[in-house]
Amino acid sequence: MSLIVQKFGGSSVRNIERIKAVAQRVCNAKDQGHQVVVVVSAMGDMTDDLIKMVHEITPDPTPRELDMLLSTGEQISISLLAIAIQSYGHTAVSLTGWQAGVQTENLHGKAKIKGIDVHRIQKELEADQIVIVAGFQGINEMGDITTLGRGGSDTSAVALAVALQADVCEIFTDVDGVYTADPRILPEARKMSVVSYGEMLEMASSGAVVLQPRAVEFAAQYRMPITVRSSFNDHPGTMVKEVSDMEREMYVSAVTHDCNVTKITVIGVPDRPGVAYTIFEALAKARINVDMIVQSTKAETVTDLLFTISSDDTRQAVHIIEGLIDELGAQGLHCDDSVAKVSVIGAGMVTNPGVAALMFKALSSAGINIQVISTSEIRISCLIDRARVQDAVRAIHSAFKLDQDPSELPPSPVDLL
Ligand code: ADP
Ligand code: ASP
Ligand code: MG
Questions:
Q1: Which residues line the pocket of ligand 1, CB cutoff 6 A?
Q2: From CA 31, how far away is CA 162, in angstroms rounded?
Q3: According to the model, what pLDDT value does residue 243 have?
Q4: How far is the CA of 210 from the centre of ligand 3 (A)?
């Protein structure tokens, strides 16, 4: 008998009809003789709707109360799913994050899971229950409810799979798997049958919301295989796992985009040691993740420091930096929400020159200006005008011929230039 963890995202439990369909799928897995632990997200756009309600009161809710509110979304879907499963004649029990033993660090809004005490879940499994756990939430050492950041149910599912030593973690969503680009903006994108942890982590961190980056990090660390597949059909999906055969890694596997990006420029900061440290230390202490960083050099003794952050952190980051302007002797701050980041990801790009050139050629042919460039070993990202993001993804996808069978592609990107 195997133990499987199945996670269903918001669109998969959007309404009662969908909840019944999910219940049916879970019952089928149980009927096949598996022990089943299910993780669910809030129904449809409920998390967004709850945030909107808060913003009708204040733009700055206290993080503790916000988490208290947001965690209720998942509480509705777990109980409805348990009731639906019971109505099909199976035994099921729903557990909130804290009932399921999910312990997190002391941070609201994007807490990391510190550990999971699986005793309660194991007891329920031994009693032949289908166990349904609320995703996206846990409890900190003070006994307060925390949430794991947007898309956090993916991480709940993988962490539970690891803690329970499950055989596989299945992530059910509204697309058939992981694609060479977001299939919603690029219908010609191709479904990948396998993707390595490394590539998936770069994809998730650069905008492919199909998996939360932390979930991929967990899976990679503990070698937990993940299957990403649709809850709307029985197509096979994508395996995220360790790919040992490096030869098979393409120079470029996928194009991602991220519109949830804000560009911040600290204008006219004195060109002296300690400035970057002061700014990024303050942001780090507030747990704000900084992505691209560019410092321009001017002939004078001042410089501009530009960086990008998630748009979710804009208010807090602006508040922090405004408080530092005088101390730094900077001239001001500029905040730009009209940008997006497009990236190409490929584990084979390290050994294949020409990837950057081909990406820049594609953007230039589409008349798209590159504002900032950043690279990692397996990713190249460009900051561009948000209004052109779809054109950019299409141009890059087509330049690298990602819609074609990878075995038919030329051996080097240089051949595509
Ligand atoms: P869920 O509610 O199931 O968690 P999400 O909306 O968080 O679903 O993630 C699924 C979405 O991820 C898809 O609808 C798709 O638009 C988006 N997505 C972005 N990039 C990719 C990609 N490369 N492959 C598949 N889906 C992607
Ligand atoms: N409901 C949460 C969100 O919308 C968590 C999730 O869907 O994974 O971000
Ligand atoms: Mg999601």
A1: 9-12, 41, 151, 173-175, 178-179, 181-184, 208-210, 254
A2: 23
A3: 85
A4: 6
pLDDT of the residue at 299: 60
Whole-angstrom distance between the N-terminal and C-terminal Cα of the chain? 52
Does the pLDDT value for residue 273 go beyond 70? yes
Kindly list the distances between the CA atom of residue 91 and the CA atoms of 13, 22, 30, 229, 390, in Å, as whole numbers in the listed order: 20, 15, 10, 25, 46
Q: Whose CA is nearest to atom 9 of ligand 1?
A: 210
Which ligand 1 atom is at minimum distance from the Cα of 173?
3
Output the CA 88–ligand 3 centroid distance in Å. 27
Query: For the segment 182-237, what is each residue's pLDDT rounded down to a tens digit?
Result: 999 999 999 999 999 999 999 999 999 999 999 999 999 999 999 999 999 999 99
> 255 forms bridges with which residues in the sheet?
344
pLDDT tens by residue, 71-103: 999 999 999 999 999 999 999 999 999 999 999
**What domains can be seen in the chain, in order of their start residue?**
3-174 (3.40.1160.10), 244-417 (3.30.2130.10)
Best residue among 75, 153, 212 to mutate for probing ligand 2, ranked by most atoms within 8 Å of CB: 153
* Residue 135 CB less than 6 A away from ligand 2: yes
Strands across the sheet containing 137-139: 113-116, 102-104, 137-139, 145-147
Confidence of residue 246 (pLDDT cuts 50, 70, 90): low
Least confident of 5-19, 33-47, 110-124, 337-351: 337-351
Q: How confident is the model at residue 22 (pLDDT cuts 50, 70, 90)?
A: very high
Atom 5 (ligand 2) nearest CA: 151
Q: Whose C-alpha lies nearest to ligand 2, atom 6?
A: 151
Tell me, yes or no, if the pTM score tops 0.85: yes
